[in-house]
Design brief:
This protein is an alpha/beta fold. It is about 30% helix and about 25% strand. It has a 5-stranded parallel beta sheet with strand order 3-2-1-7-20, with helices on one face. A hairpin with a 4-residue loop joins strand 21 and strand 22. Helix 1 packs parallel to helix 8 and helix 3 runs antiparallel to helix 4. The N and C termini lie far apart (about 70 Å). The structure holds flavin-adenine dinucleotide (FAD).
Length: about 500
């Protein structure tokens, strides 16, 4: 334990996407890396987040599609849901990916240690389970986040679950109330509804996904309602009570509606009102590490107030997304390795892609239709008093969307009125998350409308809608007739 600490040693605390990306990148660059994780590698995203929810969304969507295929000779009355098989399929996908990460960790010669790490000195962590002490010159903290549980009476009742509990259900609940209309809430509302549950979604804001473009969100809202999800906006869950008798117990929910209240009875309440950084028990206060708004405060390279300790991913707060955690891990490790300089010796600055401030983080919701966005929405640009141009293109005029039978939705491009630089792209429609890479590149590389519009997009693809929306900002879209375009603008 005593003796000098090797300068190239790194301990990564947390084996989610932020942690394992940091560990693998540092090991590839020749550092001696130890990764501490108490649970399964892959953290929230692989085990109880992105991956299992996308597996369930896909299976639920298939189930609903099969139900709607009466016209093709399938008898929907004969379709039976095997919820256990659905769960097994989801678990298989998770297992495969976790094994993949496990193998990468091994093959990159990273030492994997099981346990909860706690800082006891600036360069030493202790495992809570065994008391073993580990020392390193550098640390990356990537301990992720936990669900926010509102302080309401009845939150501990059986049948009240967070997303993690919802992923472990063995039976499909008949009546579900989803608290929260963010990405997790709307994805689960769709999963339950597509499998056949009755679903009520309660959101205290005036819109679902309220930080996204309202025109884009309206398309999803309408589709969810059409499918039978009851959406209650501007309402709050006040308290939860046990109702009925075991084993048929249910939950009575009291909602505030304007000045009055309303009672509902459901079988499951899914609490999806947000997540908060997880740092309890890490011993950060012992080292005097500064916090900001309930998250670990860092500079643009991920350095905490103890400059040899970095933090990446959900534990830094802000947007809590897997690809953000992975990108921040790359920035932090590059900074540890090159200490503020690029490989070629140039100083890094805030515009450099190796600064967290310069990362452009795309946002996606995997409902159907999907929502995908990057950069500013029209509303955000207007709130910032920016003069912008807006171009739109509807999927109803896109050949590929029509041939997929999914013509609902649009692409909307927001650009600076003076420079034509693309500031943001918001989309709703079929597979629009697959257009998000190009949209992110456009915003990240500060492309102009002309550059986006004049890039040749393959035909027939959904990506053509990006070029047409960019053209439309100047009134030049080929597939929007001038008169229709005029009418469209007048009514928006
Ligand atoms: C239901 C759901 C769906 C989601 N879907 C998406 C999606 O589609 N796309 C997307 O981009 N994001 C999605 N997310 C968000 C995404 O999962 C997170 O942003 C991402 O997992 C954050 O990665 P991370 O490495 O910061 O933390 P995590 O993945 O949470 O990993 C943190 C790890 O730290 C470990 N740990 C905690 N304390 C200690 C300690 N003391 N010592 C050692 N280890 C510790 C934990 O066990 C955990 O494995 C979803 C989240 C949820 C809940």
């Amino acid at each position: 334990m005593n003796g000098p600490i090797p300068g190239n040693s790194l301990i990564v605390v947390g084996g989610g996407i932020g942690g394992y990306t940091a560990a693998i990148r540092a090991a590839r660059e020749g550092m001696s890396v130890t990764l501490v994780e108490p649970g399964e590698l892959g953290g929230t995203c692989l085990n109880v987040g992105c991956i299992p929810t996308k597996s369930l969304l896909h299976q639920a969507h298939q189930f609903r599609q099969a139900h709607s295929m009466q016209a093709f000779g399938i008898d929907p009355l004969k379709l039976r849901l095997d919820f256990a098989a659905v769960g097994a399929q989801k678990n298989q996908v998770v297992h495969q990916l976790v094994q993949g990460v496990r193998s990468l960790v091994k093959r990159n010669r990273i030492t994997l240690v099981k346990g909860h790490a706690e800082f006891i000195e600036p360069n030493t962590v202790q495992l809570q389970e065994t008391g073993e002490r580990l020392r390193a010159a550098h640390f990356v903290v990537a301990t992720g986040s936990v669900p926010v549980l509102p302080p309401l009476s009845g939150m501990d009742l059986p049948g009240v679950v967070t997303s993690e509990g919802a992923l472990k259900l063995e039976h499909l609940p008949q009546r579900v109330l989803v608290m929260g209309g963010g990405a997790v809430g709307v994805e689960f509302a769709q999963i339950f509804r597509d499998f056949g549950s009755e679903v009520i979604l309660v959101e205290q804001q005036k819109a679902l996904l309220f930080q996204e473009d309202s025109e884009v969100v309206a398309v999803l809202h309408k589709r969810l309602e059409k499918r039978g999800v009851v959406i209650r906006l501007g309402q709050r869950v006040q308290l939860l009570r046990a109702a009925g008798a075991v084993p048929k117990s249910s939950i009575q929910v009291e909602l505030t509606v304007s000045d009055s209240s309303e009672q509902l009875e459901v079988d499951l309440v899914l609490v999806a009102v947000g997540r908060q950084p997880r740092f309890q028990g890490l011993g950060l206060d012992r080292l005097g590490i500064q916090m900001n708004n309930g998250a670990i405060a860092t500079d643009d390279f991920g350095r905490t107030s103890q400059p040899h300790i970095y933090a990446v991913g959900d534990v830094r707060g802000g947007l809590m997304l897997a690809h953000k955690a992975g990108a921040e891990a790359e920035v932090a490790v590059a900074h540890i390795l090159f200490q503020g300089k690029t490989r070629s010796g140039f100083e890094l600055n805030h515009q450099d892609p190796l600064s967290m401030a310069a990362l452009v983080i795309p946002r996606a919701v995997y409902t159907s239709p999907e929502i995908a966005a990057v950069g500013l929405t029209e509303e955000q640009a207007s709130a910032a008093h920016l003069k912008v141009k807006v171009g739109r293109f509807l999927f109803s005029a896109n050949g590929r969307a029509l041939s997929m039978g999914e013509s609902e939705g649009l692409v909307k491009v927001v650009a600076d009125a003076a420079t034509d630089r693309v500031l943001g792209i918001s989309m709703v429609g079929p597979s629009v998350t697959n257009l998000l890479g190009e949209a992110t590149l456009a915003v990240q590389m500060e492309l102009t409308l002309k550059a986006l519009a004049q890039t040749v997009h393959p035909h027939p693809t959904l990506t053509e809608a990006l070029a047409e929306a960019a053209h439309d900002a100047d009134g030049n879209a080929i597939h929007i007739p001038p008169s229709a375009k005029k009418n469209f603008k007048e009514t928006r």
